[in-house]
Amino acid sequence: MTDQTEPTASILKSRQGPTKAFCVEKLLSRAKGASLAEIVETSGWQPHSARAFMTGLRKKGYELVRECRPSGETCWRIER
After folding, report:
1. What are the per-10-residue average pLDDT scores of the chain (80 residues)?
2. For residue 44, what pLDDT is reported?
3. What's the number of domains the chain is made of?
4. Helix, strand or coil for residue 79?
5. DSSP letter at 43?
6. CA distance 31 to 17
7. What is the pLDDT of residue 17?
8. What is the C-alpha separation between 43 and 20, in angstroms, rounded?
């Protein structure tokens, strides 16, 4: 017999909203891309985890372009 008070995984997922990975992909998809600081702030990940996520995107076939903003800050964006 199952406990009726336990929500299923699909219900939990729908309550949580967008995932961190989804939010970071959206940041990287912007025309201006995202800096490491923006990714860390949005996701709550450590910098090494954010860099590892970008490596994972490359392995999935995404092309990440590294650019320098006028402020001198390095940013990355997904090339479409």
Report:
1. 51 71 96 96 97 97 96 94
2. 96
3. 1
4. strand
5. H
6. 24
7. 81
8. 5
Domain boundaries, position 38:
18-79
Q: For residue 67, how many C-alpha atoms fall within 13 Å in the half-sphere facing its CB? A: 16
Q: Are 36 and 74 in contact (CB under 8 A)?
A: yes
Instruction: Name which of 60, 58, 54 is nearest 40 in CA terms.
Output: 54
Per-residue pLDDT tens for 28-51? 999 999 999 999 999 999 999 999
Phi and psi at residue 12, in whole multiples of 5°?
-60, -45
CATH number for the domain that contains residue 66: 1.10.10.10
- For residue 41, the surrounding DSSP H or E stretch is helix 36-43
* Per-residue tokens: 22: 């989804």
